[in-house]
Design goal:
This protein is of the alpha+beta class and 392 residues long. The chain has helices at 29-39, 81-87, 90-98, 203-222, 246-254, 276-280, 301-310, 337-352, 380-384; strands at 56-62, 68-75, 116-120, 126-129, 133-134, 142-143, 152-157, 164-169, 175-180, 190-193, 198-202, 238-243, 259-267, 287-294, 319-320, 323-324, 330-334, 363-366, 371-372. The structure holds zinc ion.
Length: 392
């Protein structure tokens, strides 16, 4: 996307006595603005290769020192309105997906001074640092610069009878606010944000996340499996699988005779007590997983493996259909050496099957800590009358 420089007007779409009016651009502004434009040139919807089915964004994630890491290419996050409504509060949806603006002096962050980082409420991308927050007097949270220019996208907004520059998340295209040329020196920028487009984490929380990110990134770069937490005690009646969106996988196993229980959760990553939004961000290393408790006198582990192979496409790497990301990878988390041997034999047999022409990419790894997912994800298909996930 190419955005030409526009005269800057307005202060977030609302007028307020005492608010700063438009002013001429300082000389540094075009330079920094060019940097932002360059940074997000491959980051906005439609800015990448339009012919690609899976557009990507070039962004900077947290490094171990809680500063921006190197530029990495990540899949863009695209969801239906229905899916966004499930993940966001009505106000968060109205702002990030409908370009609304919160009332001045009403948002939770306009007068917020804690040290930490502000993340995208839609996808947890780090967007702003409290070190760059300043009191603009406008009633909206204001920052003089982004966490990383790559993490923001911009486009011209000509609504409300003025020309402004809208600021969006480069990964999920959430509307965040606008950027104006009346900020403090040296750059003279004011990023005017909506509180409900942001999620705040304190410096201590950020450091834990940054350390986890560094471990996951290092593992991903070297192609090794992320070190798992301490394995749970062997349980012969437990089996744990990852096969894409966990709603449908859980529903499939619940229908198997001999399965006493199935629950959805997160497995194989580095973050303790992960939440669904965090796992969705693709930064935890966790896979959406299903833990099955079964009666081996009624159904064998080998039979469960057959159900597993038939429930998804194990030749797709880090995706299942429209769901893309390592959290949707195919994996068998074995609890005993016997389960490991059975899983490897079953995988080899499946690979020899004439129906399977591509290499199976399923990981077979020790069962790490299983973190149960939030209650609203449990028995999701049952609660919502669906046997499979809707398209994301
Ligand atoms: Zn986002």
């Amino acid at each position: 996307m190419l955005v030409f420089f526009q005269p800057w007007t307005g202060n977030h779409g609302r007028k307020r006595a005492g608010a700063r009016g438009p002013r001429r651009l300082p000389s540094l502004l075009p330079v920094l603005f060019s940097l932002i434009m360059a940074g997000c040139a491959s980051g906005t919807a439609g800015q990448g290769d339009a012919t690609m089915n899976n557009p990507t964004a070039n962004v900077r994630l947290l490094a171990a020192d809680d500063r921006p890491g190197p530029v990495v290419t990540v899949p863009k996050i695209s969801r239906t309105d229905e899916e966004w409504r499930r993940r966001l509060t009505p106000e968060q949806f109205r702002i990030t997906r409908r370009q609304a603006t919160e009332a001045a002096f009403c948002g939770k962050f306009y007068d917020h001074h804690a040290d930490g980082l502000y993340f995208c409420v839609g996808c947890n991308l780090p967007l702003f640092d409290s070190r760059h927050k300043f009191d603009s007097g406008t009633g909206w949270p204001s920052f003089s610069r982004p966490f990383a220019p790559e993490n923001l996208a911009t486009r011209t907004d000509s609504t409300l009878g003025m020309t402004r520059t809208e600021v969006l998340c480069a990964r999920c295209d959430a509307h965040l606010g606008h950027v104006f040329p009346d900020g403090p020196p040296p750059a003279g920028l004011r990023f005017c944000l909506n509180s409900d487009a942001l999620r705040f984490r304190t410096t201590d929380q950020v450091r834990v996340l940054a350390a986890d990110n560094a471990a996951a990134t290092a593992a991903a770069l070297t192609g090794t499996t992320v070190p798992a937490a301490a394995p749970t005690a062997p349980a012969v009646t437990k089996a744990t699988f990852a096969a894409g969106c966990f709603w449908g996988v859980e529903a499939t196993f619940r229908e198997v005779k001999g399965v006493r229980n199935a629950r959805v959760g997160y497995c194989g990553g580095t973050v303790a007590n992960p939440t669904y939004p965090l796992v969705c961000s693709g930064t935890t290393g966790h896979a959406e997983s299903v833990e099955v408790t079964f009666d081996p006198a009624v159904v064998t582990y080998e039979q469960l493996l057959e159900v597993f192979w038939n429930s998804h496409d194990p030749t797709q790497f880090h995706r299942q259909g429209p769901d893309v990301g390592s959290q949707y990878r195919s994996a068998i988390f074995y609890h005993t050496p016997e389960q490991k041997a059975a899983a490897e034999a079953s995988k080899a047999k499946r690979q020899r099957s004439p129906q399977v022409i591509k290499p199976i990419v399923t990981e077979i790894v020790p069962a790490p800590t299983f973190w149960p997912a939030e209650e609203y994800h449990q028995r999701y298909a049952e609660k919502h009358g669906r046997a499979a996930c809707p398209p994301h």
